[in-house]
Write a structure and sequence with these properties.
The chain is of the alpha+beta class. It has helices spanning 3-15, 21-29, 32-40, 59-68, and strands at residues 45-47, 50-55, 74-79, 93-98, 103-108, 113-117, 121-129, 132-140, 146-151. The chain has a 5-stranded mixed β-sheet with strand order 1-2-6-3-9, covered by helices on one side. A 4-stranded antiparallel β-sheet has the order 5-4-7-8, with no helix packed on it. The chain is globular and about 40 Å long.
């Protein structure tokens, strides 16, 4: 191979576009359909030390949230009691309070799911829908995932 051919090959490799993180996720997990809703839907948000995402409206987006749940320390799901399967709720007011009494997350869920990364510790979660408040307590530990249901 001539030096010009070698140089052309190296330049071609360097000029090749890098694979996007989402394309790599699609390739690695082989589940494009479940991640497509997250690609075009909700974006991770941050309040203080808490990273979170909320949404899950529609079957594709709900499937994407369920598939992503294990990557977050805490997964919350909101539903109506006695309704048909999939009677999910949105517009749930959520407060997450640490064991020192400080609110670390306060938001309104855009859909039936809220996924959050919390630091290790004990938290009280208050979820309010139509004026009715539900409360649960959880202890976050490294490499442990919690999935809590709030049903009204």
């Amino acid at each position: 191979m001539t030096k010009i051919a070698q140089l052309t090959m190296v330049v071609g490799l360097l000029a090749a576009p890098a694979e996007s993180a989402l394309a790599q996720m699609d390739r690695d997990y082989g589940r494009h359909d479940q991640y497509e809703a997250l690609r075009t839907g909700p974006i991770e948000q941050r309040q203080g030390s808490v990273t979170f995402i909320t949404g899950g409206v529609g079957s594709d987006e709900a499937a994407a949230f369920r598939a992503s749940m294990s990557r977050y320390a805490l997964g919350l799901e909101f539903a109506r009691a006695g309704g048909p399967h999939g009677a999910f709720l949105a517009d749930v007011h959520v407060s997450v309070i640490n064991n020192r009494g400080s609110t670390v997350l306060q938001t309104i869920a855009d859909g039936p799911f809220l996924l959050a990364d919390l630091l290790t510790g004990t938290y009280t979660i208050h979820a309010s829908f139509n004026g009715q408040v539900k409360t649960q307590t959880v202890t976050i530990l490294p490499d442990l995932h919690w999935h809590l249901m709030f049903v009204w």
